[in-house]
Amino acid sequence: MSERLWEILASSLPNLLLYCVKVTIPLTACIYALSLVLAFLLALVQVLNIRVLSGAARIYVWIFRGTPLIVQMYIIFFGLPSVGITLNAFPSAVIAFSLNYAAYMSETIRASIQAVPVGQTEAGYMIGLNYFQIMTRIVLPQAAKIAFPTLFGSLIGLTKDSSLAASITVVEMFKAAQQIAARTFEPLALYCEAALIYLMLNTALTLLQRYLEKRLSWKQPLTE
Known about the structure:
Elements: H1 3-48, H2 51-66, H3 69-79, H4 89-115, H5 118-126, H6 131-161, H7 173-184, H8 187-215
């Protein structure tokens, strides 16, 4: 590797890390938080089986799971201005990602809630609890144990997928790498450097997931 290339990588690393901290991580955090809230509401509507709302939730999941995320981003950022709705790149990315990820995460939450044995609910009624108490004290804590690994895996996937926001001009870490590569004519080295940062970030998240699963005892005890 030439001395010039080493200099480019050394000078670009602080910039990439800066955009990672200033844009990529906040973008991921905002999307994940909004996705989780929306996914929970979608799952709850389907579990309660409210006819109109449940049908609307299923159609929502069908649409957003059946169309590409990048197409959804283009519709929001490039398409909506044609009908008078103009959004900046960052909120457009947050909205598109949140709507997309919520569709997938809602299915995880719904399946986790329905995986809790019906006998748990019946036992709750027998000891005098109402539906809200049964859900908050019995069903949801158990469902959280089931859903946790998959939902945390969505966070790891989202951290990588956030690079797609560069396609609608969000200047996050990957977009910064593209800009530096355009100036220096070293795309391979710059993209590999960005990939290494993504790898380190997701490795840290993976280790955190393992720690939380062990620390909080998410695994169900074996029954004899």
